[in-house]
Design a protein that fits this description.
The chain has two helices and four strands. It has about 70 residues and is an alpha+beta fold. The protein has one domain: Alpha-Beta Plaits. The chain has a four-stranded antiparallel sheet. A hairpin with a 4-residue loop joins strand 2 and strand 3.
């Protein structure tokens, strides 16, 4: 099992957490997502190894909801 944690700016409430969690959970390679607006972290557990393509898909999904990923 592979994991990824991203720092996401713009989450202001539990509704933001839910939007990110629901959107990412719809990606077939993702097993579990936990977003926390207080820390700004999104922790993702993957079903397979992280590839550049999968990371890009995750980041694009988050950015489409008008959140910014801090690297």
């Amino acid at each position: 099992m592979k994991e990824l944690t991203l720092k996401v700016e713009g989450m202001k409430c539990s509704g933001c957490e839910n939007r990110i969690q629901n959107a990412l959970q719809n990606l077939k390679e993702i097993k579990k997502v936990k977003a926390n607006y207080e820390t700004g972290l999104v922790h993702i557990i993957l079903k397979k190894e992280l590839t550049d393509e999968l990371k890009e898909e995750i980041m694009t999904t988050i950015k489409r909801m008008d959140f910014e990923i801090i690297e």
